[in-house]
Write a structure and sequence with these properties.
With 280 residues, the chain is an alpha+beta fold. It has eight helices and ten strands. It has helices at residues 4-18, 39-46, 125-128, 130-133, 146-154, 160-165, 175-185, 198-217; strands at 23-28, 51-57, 60-65, 69-74, 79-85, 95-101, 105-111, 117-121, 258-262, 265-269. A four-stranded antiparallel beta sheet has the order 1-6-7-5. A four-stranded antiparallel beta sheet has the order 2-3-4-8, covered by helices on one side. A two-stranded antiparallel sheet has the order 9-10. β3 and β4 form a beta hairpin. α1 runs parallel beside α8 (198-217) and α7 (175-185) crosses α8. The longest helix has 20 residues, at 198-217. It starts with a helix and ends in an 11-residue tail after the last strand. The structure holds a DNA duplex (12 and 12 nucleotides).
DNA sequence: GAGAGCCTGGCG
DNA sequence: CGCCAGGCTCTC
């Protein structure tokens, strides 16, 4: 569910409400969200620690805790992380974890499909979490070296859509924004990375950046499950051009949007605006 | 590369 | 009932 803009929206909501706060009480209600840790041990570990800051690395949220400790959260498909006033939080059901803070805030972690994960530890976490240690560059960073990224893609024969989903090459795109970026750049999702010209990749890099930044401004896309750090929906769903618009007219040329399966995921594209023809 | 698996719930 | 879903990992 959450891709870079959704995770960033969560981070921006939460950061001012958790920074500087002490965790006075924690409950881990679903052991599956704690790979390698047990709930009792995790509870004792986080209780009494102060949250010094909240960063984002790709789709990971990183809580910086006093003493060089970290709590890293990945929301996967249906995870929600939001705050509410502790007074309002009584009787909440189906939470995977709850944290009470000394500033009167309660931080809730909810996850219908239970793929989401919470990792606790020190510096070694960044090596032990497989997806975190080899994370590619962040396309929303002002110093993103898109030319180096483009050169990597041109070395691969895999479909460009699969390459966009590979977090080792670029951190933050998921199925929605990969499809939207390819439409914006006029590139068919099945084109091999090695077939992309420098001009294609300059266009694609520019589309990725502008779409992600625009989606952050709109607090992300809510198809069904996504909620920001205030437990509210985003609004970028109204601006989608192809994602989940199969058989509906392309907003640019009117031809019906098509769908194909790539890397086990649906890919939505306009057959006229995103041609897959020789010379590829 | 592709496919299965991890889970739950909504939809046709 | 079967299919599908915003992510990621692991096996063939």
């Amino acid at each position: 569910m959450p891709e870079l803009p959704e995770v960033e929206s969560v981070r921006r909501c939460l950061e001012p409400r958790v920074r500087g706060a002490l965790i006075t009480e924690a409950q881990f209600l679903d052991p599956r969200s704690l790979p390698g840790d047990c709930p009792a041990k995790a509870r004792a570990w986080v209780t009494g620690k102060t949250i010094e800051g909240l960063n984002r690395l790709g789709k990971y949220l990183v809580f910086h805790l006093a003493g060089g400790h970290y709590m890293v959260v990945h929301l996967r498909m249906t995870g929600r992380l939001y705050t509410m006033d502790t007074a309002e939080s009584a009787g909440l059901v189906k939470l995977a974890a709850v944290f009470r803070l000394d500033n009167g805030t309660t931080l809730c972690f909810q996850d219908t499909r239970r793929f989401g994960t919470i990792y606790l530890g020190s510096d070694e976490l960044f090596h032990s979490i497989g997806g975190l240690q080899r994370l590619g560059p962040d396309p929303t960073a002002s110093d993103w070296d898109h030319r180096a990224w483009a050169a990597q893609l041109q070395k691969r024969r895999a479909p460009v859509k699969s390459l966009l989903l590979n977090q080792q090459l670029l951190a933050g795109l998921g199925n929605i924004y990969a499809d939207e970026s390819l439409f914006c750049a006029g590139i068919h999702p099945r084109r091999p990375g090695s077939s992309l010209t420098d001009a294609d990749l300059r266009r694609l890099a520019s589309c990725i950046r502008s779409i992600l930044l625009d989606a952050i401004e709109h607090e992300g896309t809510t198809i069904r499950d996504f909620r920001n750090g205030y437990n509210q929906t985003g609004s970028f769903q109204g601006r989608l051009q192809v994602y989940r618009r199969t058989d509906q007219p392309c907003r640019h040329c009117g031809k019906p949007v098509e769908k194909l399966k790539l890397a086990g995921r649906s890919s939505h594209f306009c057959p006229a605006c995103q041609k897959e023809l020789p010379p590829w």
